[in-house]
Amino acid sequence: MSVKHFRVVLATRLLLLALIPLAACNNNKQPEKPSIKTFASPDDAGNMAIAAAKSGDLRPRF
Fold it and tell me: Which stretch is the leader sequence (predicted)?
């Protein structure tokens, strides 16, 4: 194997080793919104809590 061929192979491998972590870290997802709901009034919040307690449904309702 010639020196020139060895350099090309080495450069290719180093380039791939540098690009793989970059490609893995490239995350274009939008951050998730917080799961906090703001109610218009305390009565609305209370009514939602009572409805959830009566239904037995533990999933948040947004």
Answer: 1-23
Give the per-residue pLDDT at 60. Answer: 65
46 φψ region: left (φ > 0), alpha (ψ -120 to 50), beta (else) = alpha
Burial zone of 52 (CB within 10 Å; 0-12 exposed, 13-18 middle, 19+ buried): middle
Map out the domains of the chain as residue ranges: 1-27
62 closest CA partner among 37, 34, 44 = 37
Structure tokens, 17: 């080793």
> What does the block give as tokens for 36?
């906090």
Q: What is the pTM of this model?
A: 0.37
Kindly state the helix (H) or strand (E) to which residue 36 belongs, with its residue range.
none
Of the two residues 25 and 43, the one the predictor is more confident about is 43
